[in-house]
Amino acid sequence: MSKKQKPLVADRKEKGFIGVGLAPWAGFGVTLRTFFEKPVTEQYPFRGKFPPPFPRYHGRHQLNRYPDGLEKCVGCELCAWACPADAIFVEAGANTPDAQYSAGERYGRVYQINYLRCVFCGMCIEACPTRALTMTTNYELAAPNREQMIYTKDQLLAPMEQGMLAAPHPMRQDATTADYYSGQVQGPSPEQVEWVRTNRPEDPSLSGAERGAVR
Amino acid sequence: MVTCTIDGIEIDVPKGTLIIRAAEQAGIMIPRFCDHPLLKPVAACRQCLVDVASPFGPEGKLRPFPKPQPACAIEVTPGMVVGTQMTSAAAKEAQEQVAELVLINHPLDCPVCDKGGECPLQNQAMSTGRPVSRFVDKKNTFPKPLSLTPQILLDRERCVLCQRCTRFALQIPGDPFIALQMRGANQQIGTFDADVLGVAPVAGEAADESTGDVPAVCGEPFAGYFAGNIVQICPVGALTSAAYRFRARPFDLVSTASVAEHDANCSAIRIDYRRGVVLRRQAGDDPTLNQEWISDKDRFGFRWQTAPDRLDKPLVRRDGELVEVSWPVAIAAAAEILGQAKTTAVLPGGRLTLEDAYAYGVFARRVLGTDNVDFRARVSSAEEAQFLAHHVAGSGAGVSLEELIAAPSVVLAGFEPEEEGGILYLRLREAGTKVYALAPFASRGVQRLGGKLIRCLPGQEGQWLSELAALGKAGKPELAGSVIVVGERLASSPGAFSNALKAAAALDAKLVWMPRRAGERAALEAGLLPGLRLGGRAAQDGLPMGLDLAGSVAAAAAGEIDTILFGGLEVSDLPDPHLAREAFAKAKVVALGVRRGAVESFADVILPVAPPQEKAGTFINWEGRVRPFPQVLVSTAVSDAKVLARLAEALGKPQPIGSVAAVHQALAELKPGAERAPAPAVAPPPVRPTGAGEAILSTWRMQVDCAAGLDYEPYLAASAPAPLVRMSSELARELGVKDSDPVAVSTKRGQIVLPCKVEATAAANLIHLPAKSPGSWVLETLGVTSGAVVQLAALKEVGQ
User: Fold this and answer.
1) What's the CA gap between B304 and B260, in Å, rounded?
2) Which pLDDT value is given to residue A60?
3) Contact present, A98 and B250 (Cβ < 8 Å)
4) How far is A78 from chain B (nearest CA, A)?
5) Predicted confidence (pLDDT) at residue A213 exceeds the cutoff of 80
6) CA B92 to CA B80: how far, in whole Å?
7) DSSP strand pairing (B742-746 vs B789-794)
8) Which residues of chain A lie closer than 8 angstroms to B253, CB-CB?
């Protein structure tokens, strides 16, 4: 050690008679001072706004979608395998021509994360081969019972962005799964929009997807 | 023995051992794809390349092979020195290069591949492959998946062309319907496909456009009862089954070794389940029984155990309706019915474990005080019962499968090796045993066994066997010391069992009784036949001799039996299903069952019991081999034995039958050397003449048919062969029909219409129907069985 270590208690001058007498009251000075300062208490979640976490904070998970609205999750269960807390449960299913949820043959039929078990380590994100699973910065994970702490697929799926077409619908007719993985797909094709209009005419994502359809 | 050195380890192996096997014995794992211990070597994948040197010349100087050699195809020679990837740089490099070559066209789709996690390619790419791929070009892709059968799917882009599947199909069951096609980079596995092969259909035999069927002369779609094995042996994820596709990953599954419940072989299987749901069954490894193969029935037929009509609560009939009640209420209701019964019959069915069968026996005799017990829920006869009591019951482990296939010759009487034999067919074919089939025509199974047909109309087996007995060893030297296999089906052929005993004695042959169901032998050992007791002993408890199945059903229909204790059996399997339904409707019925099934229409109390995967128990297979299995799933369901123990308690006569241990205690206390029942002596009937438009019916069950155990498995059902009316060419000429023309087979009760198939080897006035296939429920519709005379008519169109 190069520097001489400071003693834990500073070398102070011995207090005089008055100093010793007033010492018990000196602490009230802090109290008195804060009377005139702005309070720092946040009335979260009723009032005020809590500072957002750092951008890379490990919060609630999200299951992403491709720009055309198909799910990225293929139900491979590698996240479940990687999870050190056994918090993730996945069951895969086979896409059919009538119900194509993801790009390719396989999709995650059941997807559950148990947030009573999750330790937010992010191993699942590292394991995901399709970037389907990522973490948001949302930390607002509280519920009055255990069941509600198990998040299901509909809660975890990323919200539809502008121009996305809700699954199920066929893959873009001109794209392979590799095109999907490598980011070649920019949005739904007119054919996909047409398919959804025929099969689910009342789908709310149709109007946005029609405008965003990419050739 | 041959001594060689592998990686510096000196090892003695038997002559003819392959290097790869010798290395395994030395504890060295050489990577491989195409090599399989039960298939002939082919050296197709080249993954097992090793450096080999062997002594040469008079002085025995060690001379290395110029290039690395496949370890899976070269036998060890004396003094051979082998360097595997562990010690030889050349072998290591060669293996790395082969692994790189294999991975050139293999898609890296492990996350969506069913094999991912239990994949030899994945493992060996890790252990012997290059860490980083150098391949940057486009990989080969194929449309996927290709359906080989409705059950078996092929992803050709994942295939590494090891040919395990094609070799299995050719060498083991003899169903060579898939093969390598095309050349070079386009090489692929496929079924017959004119587009791939560029072969035009043979003129005049145009393919049926509507069904996509190709004419038989060009090839047939891949089919067979053992196709599921190729999914298991595929070293990559190229072959998958529709039933298991995308259902789970290997690391989700818990595996438990068990025993298959579908046929009397009781093959070793492995049950893989996830969170209390069985997702697949794989072949277990039992070298003396099923080796590493199982039938598709054993592999895929497990959903019946969790069928939608599975019972989980007892049902009691109140005002004509079955209502769910609690166990104590149901037990009390059942005990009331059984307690008030004047005469009862017990029909436990042939799918019981030894423990359950024992419980039924004790319950019937000591609690109900009746001897009307018969496990045979099928066509049966008094002669058969006597034969079983005389020859089979209590005889312990008899002719084993290994002895059977090693016999100088095997005579199959009333037993179709492939349809009814399951894995026994594979073993017979593998061993190349000389087979004589006493059958009405040479079925596909007999043909592929290279069997010799001894043509015999159904019902005449007894006659032929009596002639055989008269000829003796001198008259039939080729059959001396053989094994005669008599199928349970011979119960419909009077005199067959009696004369089989005589023939076996005359020829110094061994006689094997071959039941179809897994529980029949155990039920027999437990004494579930009238007059028979545990371990094949004759009744000495003073009970009057009871009625057998047919007798009980007839007595119930006549109102002489008022209560029936009913086990897991199908009414449609009984000799006369119509009479049986009438009888069960008339009598009070207490049923024990896994599923609602047909019993819900007539049972007064239904008590749910556990299927095999939810209880521990013991099957006894046809060899007499004891096949215990553990409880696989955690379950609240209870075994038949436990339910019967509670019933006995409620009736005030408690019995020690509720536990596996109690049953085995009772069996262990049996003293050997009881007196056997006398042999049956029934004379075979004379040949039945047939008039114009008549024929003698032959029928047996297909391996995959409308069995209750195959319910809820649509992919397997769809891969079953089409039901056909098989007939002789003489009959076809008489009717003026050719292959695939509709033919109506009828009796007074009903008619079955199926497409025709001419069998060149069939006896002149013979027609054959599958016994319980879609559209052909012979007992139900025609009300007759093998040996009966039926009417034939040609139909121009189906439905006329």
Assistant:
1) 13
2) 95
3) no
4) 7
5) no
6) 19
7) antiparallel
8) none
pLDDT score of B208? 40
Burial class of residue A8, CB neighbours in 10 A (0-12, 13-18, 19+): exposed
d(CA B85, CA B757): 56
pLDDT exceeds 60 at position B185: yes
Looking at residues B503-519, what average pLDDT do you find?
94
Q: Per residue in A165-196, pLDDT tens?
A: 999 999 999 898 989 999 999 999 999 999 99
Report the sign of the C-alpha dihedral through residues B193, B196, B202, B205, in that order.
positive
DSSP per residue, B118-140 = S-HHHHHHHHHS-SS----SPPP
Is the bond into B131 cis (omega within 30 degrees of 0)?
no
Q: Tell me which residue in B141, B144, B251 faces A81 most closely, judged by beta carbons.
A: B251
Question: What are the C-alpha distances in Å from A128 to residues A62, A73, A75, B458?
Answer: 12, 9, 10, 63
A61 beta partners? A135
Q: B3: how many CB neighbours lie within 10 A of its CB?
A: 13
- What lies within 8 Å, CB to CB, of B707 at 6+ separation is B262, B297, B301, B701, B772
Structure token digits, residue B389? 């009591």
Q: Does domain A61-212 have CATH number 3.30.70.790?
A: no
Closest CA to B777 of B750, B755, B738, B797: B750
- CA B12, CA B724: separation in Å to the nearest integer? 55
Quote the ipTM score: 0.84
**Contact criterion met (CB below 8 Å) for B397 and B624:** yes
Task: Give start and end residues of each alpha helix (H) in A10-163.
Answer: 17-26, 28-34, 78-82, 123-127, 153-156
Contacts of A80 in chain B (CB under 8 A): 252
- Closest chain B C-alpha to A214 CA, distance in angstroms: 26
Place of tokens 């509280």: A142
pLDDT digits (tens, 9 = 90+) for A134-162: 999 988 898 999 999 999 999 999 999 98
The CA distance from B714 to A2, in Å, is 80
pLDDT tens digits for range B663-675:
888 888 877 666 7
| SS3 track for B580-639 | HHHHHHHCEEEEEECECHHHHHCCCEEEECCCHHHCCEEEECCCCCEEEECCCCCCCCCC
Please indicate if any CB of chain A lies within 8 Å of the CB of B248.
yes
Q: How confident is the model at residue B217 (pLDDT cuts 50, 70, 90)?
A: very low
Q: What distance in Å separates the CA atoms of residue B319 and residue B316, rounded to the nearest whole number? A: 10
Structure token digits, residue B285: 């490894």
Which two tokens mark B722? 């089409």
Q: Could you tell me if B143 lies within 8 Å of chain A, comparing CB atoms? A: no
pTM of the model: 0.89
Q: How many CB atoms lie within 10 A of CB B73?
A: 18
Give me the phi and psi of B591, to 5 degrees please: -115, 140
Residue B781 has what DSSP assignment?
I
**Residues B243 and B251: beta-carbon distance below 8 Å:** no
Nearest to A78 among B111, B141, B247 (CB): B111
Q: Name the least confident of A28-32, A125-129, B487-491.
A: A28-32
Cα separation, B485 vs B500, in Å, equals 9
Distance, in Å, from the CA atom of B791 to the CA atom of B778, rounded to the nearest integer, reads: 13
Would the CB atoms of A105 and B112 count as touching at under 8 Å?
yes
Q: Where are the domains of chain A?
A: 61-212
Mean pLDDT of all residues in B682-694: 87
Per the CB < 8 A criterion, the answer to whether B758 and B657 are in contact is no
In the predicted model, what is the mean pLDDT of residues B12-24? 96
Residues in chain A within 8 Å Cβ distance of B144? 105
| Chain B interface includes A76 (CB < 8 A) | yes
Verify whether the Cβ–Cβ distance A106 to B246 is below 8 Å. yes
